[in-house]
């Protein structure tokens, strides 16, 4: 009983850290300045006249449309985009033998999976609103993309070669069998498509000589690219903080009660 109480108190400590982090993220999202591209240009020009160019920084959020003259093409569905993640997951089942404390051996069949291919790509793009356009560098941003594919293909492919559209992969020994029997392969793909309105929360800067949105210098300032609204993303983070808070209270409360009960007992 005392051990379980200690585990719950430790879990409460972890949840306290999570809750503080989510609260701070929510606070920073609310502090981000709502802007249009023209606002950034006006502010950057004014600051440049006062202290010179290259030193202006501003934590902002903008709503605009994704544009680029040289888009990526996603690996499976061949969707024009500025970011994609493509994965192939092998799903299998295997026979597992387990021995209990009395030496009795039991046999069971368990399912599992393993990722055998994953490709992530992202490129800078322009965010266009009614007042102009600004460059966005998505490096290290938390991107919430759109799922365009989730397809399971049963069995092993003929000739030991996986293929999906232009994608192909020689399996080698992955599908050879052994103690694991391949059930099939799942193909998944997410993209950040062109010509879709989206939200960018990040740091506006003129450090390269032109205005761009990039990862904030402060670690506690989220860098987010999403098709959700600013209100929706802020509400989601706030709800996560509340869930973590009440979970923390529950863990601490039950943990302390179990410790007291063990001491009294």
Q: What does the model show?
A:
- The protein is of the alpha+beta class and 265 residues long.
- The chain is flat and about 80 Å long.
- It contains three helices and 15 strands.
- A hairpin with a 6-residue loop joins β3 and β4 (80-99).
Short description:
With 265 residues, the chain is α+β, with helices and mostly antiparallel strands.
Beta-strand fraction estimate: 35-45%
Helix content: 25-40%
Sheet with most strands: 5 strands, mixed, barrel
Oligomer: single chain
Q: Helix-strand pattern, N to C?
A: HEHEEEEEEEEEEEEEEH
Mean pLDDT: 86
Report the count of strand segments: 15
| Low-confidence sequence ranges | none
SSE inventory with pairings:
Layout: H1 2-31, E1 33-34, H2 37-51, E2 57-67, E3 72-73, E4 80-99, E5 105-122, E6 125-129, E7 132-136, E8 142-144, E9 146-154, E10 161-164, E11 167-170, E12 180-193, E13 197-205, E14 212-214, E15 224-226, H3 230-264
Parallel strand pairs: 1-2, 7-14, 8-15
Antiparallel strand pairs: 2-6, 2-13, 3-4, 4-5, 4-12, 6-7, 9-12, 10-11, 13-14, 13-15
Helix pairs in contact: 1-3
């Amino acid at each position: 009983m005392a051990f379980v109480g200690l585990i719950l108190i430790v879990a409460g400590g972890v949840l306290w850290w999570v809750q503080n982090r989510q609260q701070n993220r929510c606070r920073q999202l609310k502090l981000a300045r709502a802007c249009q591209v023209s606002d950034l240009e006006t502010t950057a020009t004014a600051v440049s006249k006062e202290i010179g160019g290259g030193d202006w920084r501003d934590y902002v959020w903008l709503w605009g449309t994704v544009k680029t003259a040289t888009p990526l093409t996603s690996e499976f569905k061949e969707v024009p985009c500025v970011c994609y993640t493509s994965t192939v997951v092998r799903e299998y089942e295997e026979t597992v033998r387990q021995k209990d404390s009395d030496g009795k051996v039991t046999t069971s069949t368990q399912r599992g999976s393993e990722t055998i291919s994953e490709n992530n790509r992202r490129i800078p793009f322009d965010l266009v609103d009614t007042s102009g356009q600004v460059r966005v560098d998505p490096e290290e941003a938390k991107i919430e993309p759109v799922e365009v594919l989730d397809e399971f293909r049963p069995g092993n492919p003929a000739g030991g070669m996986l293929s999906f559209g232009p994608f192909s992969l020689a399996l080698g020994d992955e599908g050879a069998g052994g103690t694991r029997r391949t059930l099939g392969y799942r193909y998944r793909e997410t993209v950040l498509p062109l010509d879709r309105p989206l939200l960018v929360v990040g740091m506006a800067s003129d450090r390269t000589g032109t205005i761009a949105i990039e990862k904030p210098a402060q670690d506690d300032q989220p860098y987010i690219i999403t098709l959700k609204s600013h209100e929706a993303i802020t509400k989601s983070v706030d709800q996560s903080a509340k869930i973590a808070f009440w979970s923390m209270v529950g863990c601490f409360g039950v943990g302390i009660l179990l410790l007291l009960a063990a001491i009294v007992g």
